[in-house]
Amino acid sequence: MRRSSDLSPEIAEESAWWRDAVFYQVYVRSFADSNGDGVGDLDGIRSRLGYLELLGVDALWLTPFYRSPMADHGYDVADPRDVDPLFGDLAAFDRLVADAHEHNIRVTVDLVPNHTSDLHEWFQEALQAGPGSMERSRYVFREGRGFDGSQPPNNWVSVFGGPAWTRVPDGQWYLHLFAPEQPDLNWDHPEVRADLEHTLRFWLDRGVDGFRIDVAHGMAKPEGLPDMEIRTQVPGVLSDDAHDPRFDNDGVHEIHRMIRKVMDGYPGTMAVGEIWVKDDERFAAYVRPDELHLGFNFRLVEADFDADAVRSAIEHSLGAVALSGTPATWTLSNHDVVRHVTRYGGGALGEQRARAMTLVELALPGVIYLYNGEELGLPNVELPDWALQDPTWERSGHTERGRDGCRVPIPWEGTTPPFGFSTAVNTWLPQPNEWDHLTAEAQLEDPGSMLSLYREALEHRKSNTSFAGEELEWYGAPAGCFAFRRKGGGLICALNTSGASVPLPPGQVLLSSGPMDGDQLPPDTAVWLA
Prior knowledge:
By secondary structure, this protein is α/β, with parallel strands linked by helices. The protein has helices at 9-12, 42-47, 49-55, 90-102, 121-129, 190-205, 252-263, 280-285, 299-302, 307-322, 340-343, 347-363, 391-395, 440-444, 450-463; strands at residues 22-26, 59-62, 66-67, 79-83, 106-111, 141-142, 165-167, 173-175, 210-213, 270-273, 294-295, 329-331, 367-371, 471-475, 481-487, 492-496, 502-503, 509-512, 520-521, 525-529. β9, α7 (252-263) and β10 (270-273) form a beta-alpha-beta unit.
């Protein structure tokens, strides 16, 4: 079992460190490549820890690096207690954790409990064992409908497109809410629960500081697997629908209580769930004292660049966690959504608005999740058809381009691809030639760069007492604007999404997202006042 003495004094000091931490999501394939194969890896991350310390983050979240055939780039896990050779080995993981802790950066890792790879030994045993076997009972196998069983057991659809069921040669069907290569586990089976506990302890004993739980509102299936209501726009995992029986079933809370019980034996560790649930009371149920420490909040991701929409997202988020006493979490981008520079309009306008929303996000009380590359102002990339690898592309019949555009490798230095990401000419996804001005090297010494804005804002957030308050007070503001204050800390954050400059609230300017206009706040700009 991990001991507090295994950590540096700064890391070991506080058991609830996560309550106001800044996490940095590393999409492992795209961060840094140490061996020249064009794919990011664990030693590549380790080589950039100095950059992450300079940026000012408190913890990492690593996307899956486990053994996998990579049908969904690692979210199809064949062995959850080993490192895929593509990313290194267990020794490389241990080196990364040890070095991160030396840099006073904690390490959290992805956990994928809803499903396994179809090449997991359990699923291969299930295929061999046949209907009615103990091996099949670890997954969700059912007989088909119709006189000959040729129709799926229900009408559920996959998040990646097409039916959520695949038929095997002996006639039965298995459930996969995602790709056919990702069969859903049966969480009513005691071996499934015992195996997850084994996985939790395996990584906790190696020194990880916590977990991000993939599809944390999944896993539990409703009794009888009733049909879902099919609408013109079929709800997927990145949406919330109270009538969707695939997700947010009450039985999931027993699973999270089991996870929490394990983690309580490892002081100073935490778990955050990917919870696409908008109802405040149902969301709050996931972060009760005996369940998850934190729940991912996607309201800022879903909000347009509009003062009223952003304020509503903030108020709903704070209202949901107020029911449980848990800190709110805030994020603008991740590996599943279009990068926010592009969402906010792209080009110079999108960058200007992204800078403004960065100050809004970092002014809020609670936990911040940054996505690798957002601090460089990276946009989504329109990749050529031949480069697309997301399973959504094939499953949708080439109608949905998927998530590859937000996963393009990070540009570190130089003027041409691969921009220091790798020594390989061809990276797993191609980088745009015009990214030369977005490299970390190009931005590091430029005081007006996106990277400099992030560094300065994170430094203020960490060291300035104006950020101490955990509650917000709202000021009156012109249409298209808002201003709030950190109660007890004193920081005022103001945002202007209107089309004209407006008077600044009273206070001394601490930091602005763009050039100021005297005592006026320009459009598409945010400011911190102390």
